[in-house]
Amino acid sequence: MSDSEEHHFESKADAGASKTYPQQAGTIRKNGFIVIKGRPCKVVEVSTSKTGKHGHAKCHFVAIDIFNGKKLEDIVPSSHNCDVPHVNRTEYQLIDISEDGFVSLLTSDGNTKDDLRLPTDETLLGQIKEGFDGGKDLVVTVQSAMGEEQICALKDVGPK
């Protein structure tokens, strides 16, 4: 092989290794995050039960899916590891709302992001449409975890 040959590798597959990290169940607290049934969730309640002579303490987690709002529960021995999702929140300026429900967002490096739908939450959806129709300058917060993204908050930064 000579130096003049160029090789281009395009990664189409995702190993998925960076979507979560392990954390001991006994160290996960309320308002933390956890993966239950393959879904990223925010913990709303944790109770730890002590078991018999040779048993392990168990953690009972009650959590809400961060994307669809469904309540999920799981019981894990406190010494075992649980998957915890990497949850990121990014702010983007809202540029446009298309007819089919997609939004056009301005990223910090000046590019546009056009692959997000309007949120399903009725109050947030109403606030976004009302502010946009009123000609206000809006900044939306996009929460992402495990390959999913969704608008989760809105900030009004004044008129355009």
From TrEMBL:
Gene3D superfamilies according to UniProt: 2.30.30.30, Nucleic acid-binding proteins (2.40.50.140)
Domain named Translation initiation factor 5A C-terminal: residues: 86-155
Listed Basic and acidic residues bias regions: 1-13
Annotated TM spans: none
Keyword Protein biosynthesis appears in the UniProt entry: yes
SUPFAM superfamilies in the cross-refs: Nucleic acid-binding proteins, Translation proteins SH3-like domain
Gene Ontology molecular function, alphabetical: ribosome binding; RNA binding; translation elongation factor activity; translation initiation factor activity
Pfam families: eIF-5a, IF5A-like_N
Recorded family membership: Belongs to the eIF-5A family.
Protein function: Translation factor that promotes translation elongation and termination, particularly upon ribosome stalling at specific amino acid sequence contexts. Binds between the exit (E) and peptidyl (P) site of the ribosome and promotes rescue of stalled ribosome: specifically required for efficient translation of polyproline-containing peptides as well as other motifs that stall the ribosome. Acts as ribosome quality control (RQC) cofactor by joining the RQC complex to facilitate peptidyl transfer during CAT tailing step.
The name this protein goes by in its record: Eukaryotic translation initiation factor 5A
Lineage, top ranks: Eukaryota, Viridiplantae, Streptophyta, Embryophyta, Tracheophyta
The encoding gene: LOC101758454
